[in-house]
Design a protein that fits this description.
Blueprint (H helix, E strand, L loop, with lengths): L2 H14 L1 H38 L4 E6 L2 E3 L2 E3 L9 H10 L3 E15 L4 E9 L3 H4 L4 E4 L4 H6 L3 E4 L1 H8 L9 E4 L2 E9 L14 E5 H9 L6 E6 L5 H15 L10 E5 H44 L1 H9 L4 H38 L7 H27 L3 H6 L2
Parallel strand pairs: 5-10, 7-9
Antiparallel strand pairs: 1-11, 1-12, 2-3, 4-5, 4-8, 4-11, 6-9, 7-10, 8-9
Length: 406
């Protein structure tokens, strides 16, 4: 018997008990839809995290001041004050493959404009920030290297800080604000960049030269971090190792001493943020897979019932010359057709649900070809696995005993 004819007979047999077939397929539909939705949510979350990481800049290596303490009193990251702008200059001058290097200092301050004020994060950085983080300027310009050398009182606002101080979409270039009770001139506004990977709003920030932060706001000589951008063909793990070796040499650390700084690459940040997402995706997909198993058990159940109800039909087929393999193929194809039909409907339901979740709840989702292919493959495998036993039972029937069955 041809495969086409076998499929036609399988479809005709399934249509005899349409309600039972539909209820059996429902378990497969729900299982496949659940897998599609859960994988879509997990994939979307991972993609969103990777986009947020990339928004920081490309090929980023971050050096932060380390933890310290005296005696039993332990202090957290950033407590050590051994990082200096000279370290950034040494990294830039002595290591190959460095595209940009910017010292960094951070504080929070109340910024006072003419008619309002706003508490925001103030970052001290270099003039290379816009290139390092691929962050275009919307109005005005970023401060220059001359401003950094002169510790000029100039500030560049993020879009959220601008909106709070001067109104949404305003161009405050040339306006004056006060930071730490000192006058600063607004020289530019950056375009909106959105939320960062760790949750903070990148646009709710004001940028000033790090030298101005050191001399006029904080009165320090150290920096809290150094942001580096490597060339495209430079492996970040190798760059991190070279930076670590150079800083240990500059800080005169003995072999037994721990680093007084921390070096993190973009790859490490992505791994840290996506590990939890991956775990939750696997957990949710595992829970959804239970529905597939339940659907498979339903397929086995209806196929066993079908074998019992059609025992005389099976005996008649065997008596007129059908082979055992023909009977096996007939019932196995019925199980596969039932699971594939349920899988196809489940894929449509899962894709629609994922779209609805994204539209209504504003969660990032992504239905990928791999998840659709995996679901279709799992549906077919479920049909084969749970349909094989009923099919073998049907093929093993003796023709005479089957014809006598009441």
């Amino acid at each position: 018997m041809s495969l086409f004819m076998t499929v036609r007979i399988a479809i005709r047999a399934l249509r005899r008990n349409a309600l039972g077939t539909a209820l059996t397929a429902l378990g497969m539909i729900i299982g496949v839809a659940a897998v599609i939705v859960m994988v879509a949510i997990g994939t979307g979350a991972r993609t969103a995290i990777e986009q947020q990481i990339r928004s920081v800049g490309s090929n980023i290596v971050m050096v932060n001041a380390g933890a310290g303490g005296f005696g039993p009193v332990r202090q957290g990251q950033g407590a050590v004050t051994t990082l200096t702008p000279e370290d950034a200059g040494a990294i830039r001058g002595q290591l190959e493959g460095i595209r940009y290097a910017s010292p960094a200092l951070n504080t929070r301050s109340q910024i006072v404009a003419e008619t309002t004020n706003w508490n925001t994060q103030v970052q001290g950085t270099s003039d290379e920030l816009v290139e390092l983080r691929s962050w275009p300027v919307q109005f005005g310009s970023f401060f220059s290297a001359a401003d950094v050398r002169a510790a000029a009182k100039v500030v560049v606002l993020g879009s959220v800080a601008r909106d709070q101080l001067f109104g949404a979409g305003a161009d405050p270039t040339g306006a004056s604000v006060r930071i730490h009770n000192q006058p600063f001139r607004v020289v530019g506004v950056l375009t909106s960049k959105g939320q960062a990977a760790f949750g903070q709003d990148q646009d709710d920030t004001a940028f000033i030269p790090f030298t101005t932060m050191q001399k006029r706001l904080l009165g320090v000589r150290h920096v809290s971090g150094i942001i580096l951008s490597a060339e495209d063909d430079v492996p970040l793990d190798r760059m991190a190792s070279e930076v670590t070796a150079l800083l240990r040499q500059r800080h005169q650390l003995a072999d037994a001493e721990v680093d007084d700084f921390m070096v993190r690459t973009q790859t490490e940040m992505t791994s840290m943020l996506t590990s939890t997402t991956d775990t939750m995706t696997y957990l949710l997909a595992g829970i959804a897979a239970v529905s597939l198993i339940v659907g498979g058990i339903g397929i086995m159940n209806i196929m066993l019932v079908s074998v019992t109800e059609r025992t005389r039909e099976i005996g008649l087929r065997l008596a007129v010359g059908a082979r055992d393999v023909d009977v096996l193929a007939q019932f196995l194809v019925e199980a596969i057709v039932l699971s594939l039909a349920g899988g196809a409907l489940g894929i449509l339901l899962g894709g629609g649900t994922a779209y609805a979740v994204s539209a209504l709840m504003h969660w990032p989702t992504a239905v990928t070809a791999s998840s659709v292919g995996m679901s279709a493959g799992v549906a077919a495998a479920t049909g084969v696995f749970f349909g094989l036993y009923p099919a073998r039972k049907a093929a093993a029937l003796h023709p005479i005993e089957a014809l006598r069955y009441e």
